[in-house]
Amino acid sequence: MRGETWAASRATVHLLRFRVSGAELAVVAREIEEIVELSVTTSVPGVARHVPGLLAVRGEPLPLLDLATFLGLAAQARAEDREPRVLVARAAPFRVGV
Questions:
Q1: Is the C-alpha dihedral spanning 25, 28, 31, 35 positive or negative?
Q2: Other C-beta atoms lying within 10 Å of the C-beta of residue 73
Q3: What is the pTM of this model?
Q4: Closest CA to 21 of 72, 55, 65, 63
Q5: Could you read off the pLDDT of 12-66 as tens digits, one per residue?
Q6: Radius of gyration of the chain (CA)
Q7: Which residues lie across from 56 on neighbouring strands?
Q8: Distance CA 87, CA 98 (A)
Q9: Is the separation of the CB atoms in 80 and 40 below 8 Å?
Q10: Gap between the terminal Cα atoms of the chain
Q11: Engineering a disulfide at 53: which of 11, 29, 41, 96 sits with its beta carbon 3.0 to 4.6 angstroms away?
């Protein structure tokens, strides 16, 4: 993941770039609360395929969104030296892990 600054029509937007299944994606940095390690998730019956379950972050349940499944990207092996991370994003009033 890398931070990046992008300027457009006098406004500066800070982006956080990351990869999911080989695709490079970016989100507006101010929407990210924190980046945490992926830990044990709790499955929830009856939810969409792209929601593998809930993740506990600081004692709060957080719905986890699998972007690869949601975007229809083919699964790719992760580099051995890279542990999966979760971006904790907030778009009022919602909070989600991606």
A1: positive
A2: 15
A3: 0.77
A4: 72
A5: 889 999 988 888 999 999 999 999 998 889 999 999 999 999 999 988 999 999 9
A6: 14
A7: 61
A8: 5
A9: no
A10: 13
A11: 41
